[in-house]
Amino acid sequence: MYKVLVSDPISDMGIQMLYDATDVEVVKQPGLSEDELIAIIGDYDALLVRSQTKVTEKIMNAGTKLKVIGRAGVGVDNIDLEAATKRGIIVINAPDGNTIATCELTFAMMMSTARMIPQAYKKTVGGEWDRKFIGVELRNKTLGILGMGRIGSEVAKRAKVFGMEVIGYDPFLTEERAEKIGVKLGTVNEIVAKADFITVHTPLTPETRHLISKPQFDIMKKGMRLINCARGGIIDEMAMVEAIDQGIVAGAAFDVFEVEPPQHDHPFLNNPKIIVTPHLGASTIEAQENVAIDVSEEVLHILRNEPFKNAVNLPPVPANVLNKLQPYFGLGEKIGSILGQIAQGAVYEIVVNYAGDLIDVDTSPLTRYIVKGVFENQLEGINIVNAMHLAKSRDVNIVVQKSNTSNSFTNLVTVTVKTKQEEKTLAGTLLAGYGERIVRIDQYPVDFAAEGNLLLISHNDKPGIIGRVGTLLGTNNVNIATMQVGRKVIGGSAIMVLTIDKSAPAEVLEELTKQAEIVNVRALTV
């Protein structure tokens, strides 16, 4: 019998399959302190929590039989993932369970801001009969969706039923998939300029932070409306208040804030054109049951040694495989990360070729690191366990090849990312005494360490370019640590790879792109 401890209030209906399982005993004891949990956890194979229980390293060390920790929800901030990984405990969550709840809240917010329902309600219950609340219809309006993952796609389906035209943005949305769900593809700025309503459904990453800010408000259609039920910080809050004051934004509805809970003097709280709610995206009876059902099913799979998904940490890898592959994990992730930053367009295929020492070992754990690296700047919550699942759900084909030849290297990892616009290739190796090295970018031979702040400059091979780049960076107090130049023929196309001590300001990058013979400048962080 497997023993499962439920230490937070979780719907009995949601965990009914655990109660029904003949090989599982379920014990519910919510409200336990850390010491109380430590005293009993040694008897259990699985622990189910929501957000109240803090699953610390001490608890996991005491859980000598613990195989899995299930979080009935999305966030796992209350679980020490590093400690779980060290002990070989799989941590799973339920990322799909609140999809419909958040989608429907988005529509409730859209309708509310279109018809000013909360504002009208407040006046009516206050004794005023004010019929001057003139709203707008959703029919024949353009909805822009930034982020076409699970929730964004569900919003798009419903918007089409309301008679809306939908434009979507997602770095991994292919034209084929967009056509399937009836969405036109657009850039962020194209959507901002055309949309009557915009809703955001991206993760909060360095790339999406303030995705809509002053430059976007400056080109925005006057009288449009904004909805954010995703993450605080995707929309620049102060810039939006200014846009409302200028009459650019007619109304907004926010379920999330950059800092939660917001301070009492937050400008959203007293603005009559902004509707706010306290992060209610997943707060439905059905969503709470769904996340419990999802996590219960995964727990059963893990306890029974069956295939599972939605793990947020690394499952155990056989020691002999781990010893062989572990030195390559960092290299693989860095190769993927660089490709994910330089490839333009929606990725539809990733081709990984292993050569040399790697051909006789199961490289699937290393492939996960590579795929994670490719997508880590675009997809929230991606990790080395769920990377393959997330790639498959976005119709990204993963091809793994092995070859005996490795071009004079004892080991070589070559990765090609294919999009509708281009193919980009990186090759890397481990060199004794030098560690992780990138040895090829597309057709150009190079040799540099993939770490820190990098500048990748495509240019025509003409005299003086290296000097101009160095002078411009030096003038702007950007120190060059290393420089590599790659070319195939004299006077043809070439690349420069620079390691710099700090990230270059945007205006410096813009100035670099204006230099004669420079084709493209990309700032990378590894």
From TrEMBL:
Q: Name one GO molecular function term.
A: NAD binding
One family name in Pfam for this protein: 2-Hacid_dh
Q: Which UniProt keywords apply?
A: Amino-acid biosynthesis, NAD, Oxidoreductase, Serine biosynthesis
- Keyword Amino-acid biosynthesis part of the UniProt annotation: yes
**Domain ACT residues, every copy:** 454-526
Family of the protein in this entry: Belongs to the D-isomer specific 2-hydroxyacid dehydrogenase family.
Q: What is this protein called?
A: D-3-phosphoglycerate dehydrogenase
Its source organism is Paenibacillus ferrarius
